[in-house]
Amino acid sequence: MSTLVVVCHNPQCRDSVESKPTDPRPMTKTGETFSCWTFKCGTCGSLRAVSKDQIGGTWGAGKTDDQRGKGLKKYSGGMQFNR
Fold first, then answer.
1. What is the CB neighbour count within 10 angstroms for residue 74?
2. CA 1 – CA 78 distance, rounded (Å)
């Protein structure tokens, strides 16, 4: 089974794939949104978001793309429901 490694592409970073094509430093996963994973380079601090279409993952997991939380408030807009 192969493991996907997300690397930095900043040309000014000394650990990016452009500077070290055979041994780039992997980026650190910083979070997950509805449609992507977010990463940060430990060397230069560059940020990168990679779509779940490209690297896999469950759509809908994590925060929504507009940073709303999960749960009933997401769908109801704060409306009250009568039972």
1. 11
2. 45
* Per-residue pLDDT tens digits for 16-69: 999 999 999 999 999 888 888 899 999 999 999 988 888 777 666 666 656 555
Question: How many CB atoms are located within 10 Å of the residue 64 CB?
Answer: 13
Amino acid at 70: K
pTM across the whole model: 0.66
- Three-state DSSP class for 75? helix
- Phi-psi domain of 30 (left: phi exceeds 0; alpha: psi -120 through 50; beta: other): alpha
Q: Where are the domains of the chain?
A: 1-78
